[in-house]
Model the fold of this input.
Amino acid sequence: MADKDAQVELGLALLGRAGNPEAIATAVGTLGDSADPRIRQVIGQKYAALNAQPRRRDSGCFQRTALVRALRGRATTDDVALIETALWTVEIIGRFDAATDLRAEGRLAGFHAVRLLSDAHEMSGEPAVTAAKLLALREQLLPLYGLVSSRGGTPEVQAECLRGLTTLPVSLVARLLQQYHDERDSTIVLGLFDLLLGHASRAEFAGFIASFLDRTQSIDLYRFVVNSIVASRDPALSLLLRRPDGPGENSPKGKVLREALALVR
Done:
């Protein structure tokens, strides 16, 4: 154990000092399969420093490509922004785009994410939850849809996959609503409504949303959906909150509704 700890410390020191892709690769090799969170911190700090002045500090994107490669098997939710930056990087030098390999490394993370979708801790859902976020970022909807349509994964993973499907065709969302119509797990329900209310055609789902508001016995979920509708400012959905056959004014739901509508007066 002491030898392994010493090796990690050496690898961290080498990674911190590394000034070229070969040195970064050497440091990563020294670190082995260590999951020490400091590794990700150093990678993030170095990437940010290089990306702040890319032409001067990392012309050709070689170091940043090596750093993204070093995140393989280590990336968490906190690294999604870094990978997103890599995926959108374009750096033209002469007539060529020097960021091709950097973007390819970011795309490769998507393939790893598909594999990790089925690898979820029973409590946190990681690393599958992070994988779902990365796939949504890349708009790789097929693996996300495949998981939720088969009702696979933990509630945390299903919820994150649902959140990533806001560009799914309306017809396929409607199929999901049939599957999740009687869902009782609050984590999954939150993900489902993030999908519905984040979808460009959210008004198409007004019937399902109205039915849920009528049926749910959870005041917390009712409050979440009502407040989300208010925040969306969608005219069609806002009408659902002003129905004459809505909850009684002094009922628990009625009080929540009154508080939410007071915000838009």
User: Anything to note?
Assistant: The chain has a mean pLDDT of 88.
